[in-house]
């Protein structure tokens, strides 16, 4: 690497000349810059490839259903973890879908104590949150593709609740709750 930088320095110093040598020096400078960038790219690509290879080998070794991949352990939904509380008496479970960058239109009328489950049907991760009429913000967790998050309508809910995504601000859905 050091000889390459030395050569680049000498070519750059002489690049100010305006004769035929100038064109040669400029071409040499471009050649050495491209060579340096190619070497750096090769280093980055080989490092990324070795990390992928290691992950695939580890996955093959541990693919006995007894261990999950690290990516599957990072953000499991509360439903997957078994942490979702049972529905309150008289409450209804409503299901919604989150496509690439929008929440599907819903056909239900949400009421207090109802639970709303939102399935991520896109191939990207989302991080939904709900803004209450008083400005309170409730995070619904990070949602990897295929994951389901849920929100239970508060007992005292009334007014407009706004669903948004921290990662994709274009996602927005307003839900009015009145009892």
Name the descriptors.
179 residues, alpha+beta, three-stranded mixed β-sheet, 4 helices, 7 strands, 36% helix, 24% strand, rod-shaped
Description:
The protein is of the alpha+beta class and 179 residues long. The protein contains four helices and seven strands; from the N terminus they run H-H-H-H-E-E-E-E-E-E-E. It has helices spanning 2-14, 20-61, 70-74, 78-81, and strands spanning 93-98, 115-120, 126-131, 137-143, 148-152, 159-165, 172-177. The strands form two sheets. A four-stranded antiparallel sheet has the order 4-3-6-7, with no helix packed on it. It has a three-stranded mixed sheet with strand order 1-2-5. Strand 3 and strand 4 (137-143) form a beta hairpin. Helix 1 packs antiparallel against helix 2 (20-61). Mean pLDDT is 76; it is low at 49-54, 56-65 and 70-76.
Write the layout of secondary structure elements.
Blueprint: H1 2-14, H2 20-61, H3 70-74, H4 78-81, E1 93-98, E2 115-120, E3 126-131, E4 137-143, E5 148-152, E6 159-165, E7 172-177
Parallel strand pairs: 1-2
Antiparallel strand pairs: 2-5, 3-4, 3-6, 6-7
